[in-house]
Amino acid sequence: MAISSHIKEMMEGSSFIRKMFETGAKLKEQYGDDNVYDFSLGNPDVPPIQKFTDTVIKIMEEDIPAKHGYMANAGFSFARKAVAAQVSKDQKADVDEQSVVMTCGAGGALNIVLKSILNPGDRVLVSSPCFMEYKFYADNHGGKLEIIKPKENFELDADAFEKAMGADVAAVILNSPNNPSGKIYSKENLNSLFEVLKKASDKYGRSIYVICDEPYRNIVFDGAEVPAVFPLYNNSIVVTSYSKNLSLPGERIGYVAANPAADDFDDLMNAVILCNRIMGFVNAPALMQRAVSELQGETVDISVYQRKRDLLCEELSRIGYEFEKPKGTFYLFIKAPGGDDAAFADLLLKERVLVVPGSGFAMPGYFRISYCVEDKTIKGSFSGFEKAFKQVCKNC
Ligand SMILES: Cc1ncc(COP(=O)(O)O)c(C=O)c1O
Description:
By secondary structure, this protein is α/β, with parallel strands linked by helices. The chain is built from 13 helices and twelve strands.
């Protein structure tokens, strides 16, 4: 066999999202782009802000020695400083450049953090529903992802986390606002988990890290706020990117920011910097580091996503779908009528509406709509959503 049997196994069980993407491409070929309603991918459709374009053009025209050269593996000092100033505001803590490593997106950031902290066989816990790439990322570094069921309304279940604790738990990944549910964990809910983790860290004599995966921190609606984790839990690390808030997913730019109060802080940062190098990333893209340094605190026009959310929520709840109106992200996570998410996604597919079954996020019985799509896709999908609903809920 040419490829590793482990990777072959992974390819076979690989992402629902990808499968939907491929099915969508075939349908579009058959029926034309305008007749397929594809809500499967989280690829932002709001264009980057004009200031991004202007900044990139300005940088390209500037005379900067070794503009596109290698730099220190942690990134440009000015970029790390600019990010640290923003993280200080977001995390309500005093963070300086020593806490920051510029990365190839949030995916790159997660991988270098996990590589830095995992011993073979270590477990990484996450509450469902969750972004399933975490499973692959933990596996990349000899770890194992373990899914913890949430309480009602997708709240973190601190008791369930407590039951899962052991000497081999290295980290908990928190993704808030959450992909796919849009849930923002409250401060109280976070604190209930952190109490459990503090006790377990003492009991097992190891620093259990909380990895806050926050690419949607700034995509929030109705004045919602994402609580700062640094003041609540010392062993915390933010991993994030500009993929969603600046609509730059293909540019692969993000960062790691560690809590200055974390145990063995210097070792941790040196490990993360080394891993950025030896994973083959070497450093985050130079041009993008320069650009985002000048764009801290900026976001695309979030009101566009809020309007799309409202449009969808209004019509889907009129039809009879059940969901919690999300306060963040650009996803809606909806109860699958009849309870079988894969069967319902197939029904929608017959109407040329593409969604991702909740099983793809370790939460069967739901499906995800990614609404970073054109308004005409949203409006065009409504009759398909209604037909599929009525087929299952004849007497609803
Ligand atoms: C929850 C979550 N984490 C991480 C990522 C990866 O983001 P990036 O493109 O910055 O690697 C995504 C992308 O969709 C995501 O939804």
